[in-house]
Amino acid sequence: MARRLGLTVVALVALAAASAALAGDPREPQHRFNPADQAWAHRIIVSHDDLGPGDWRVEQLDSQGDANAPSYCKNPNLSDLVLTGRAKSPDFGREDSFEDSDGEVWATEREAIAAFNRLKAYPFDRCFRVAMQQEFANGSGVKFTMLSSGSLKIGKFAPRQLTYGLRFRMTVGTQRIDGRIDIYAFSRGRADGSVLVASLGAPARPIPLSLERKLATLVAERLKR
Predict the structure, then answer these.
(1) Is the entire prediction scored with pTM above 0.85?
(2) Would you say 200 and 117 are in contact if contact means Cβ atoms under 8 Å apart?
(3) Cα gap 124→127, rounded to integer Å
């Protein structure tokens, strides 16, 4: 059952990764990458070594972008802004739980602030509900219930930061499994970084909250050049 429900989490994670625009998307920022800022972006993201022990594997999340999403769930329009560095970690998975991170460097701090403010305006709650409707419209037999959602309680790790957490339950017949999707986004100077964790509970092996917070802290600290 955990594997079956894990596929549903993949669909939700794909929607949650709102910053991962498809190639050719007219809302994508302009790209003027340079070696120094590319190296900086790569230093920000989570590496396999950061995850510690465990059977962590590189997964390929089947994201179809936001083509089927309503207009209010589309990626923010960043086409007037300029990226000078970008890096994305592999999608690391372990027993139907996933971790993903991104690092970006903008041409100016003003552009970094503009990009962050547009991310803050993204309607996470509303768009997760849209994802559920789309996922379960085909009679999958899975009942999805949102248990709670909202900002995560963490310390101040960067001048600009955003957190969002969703707790959910998926039920098939008499079997049920709880899980969470947590998003952390940080911005400092010209750089920003984000961490997304999707984790299923028993009978799967959830990602410890302590590890999740460690990864978020690492990404926030790596924004300092």
Answers:
(1) yes
(2) no
(3) 5
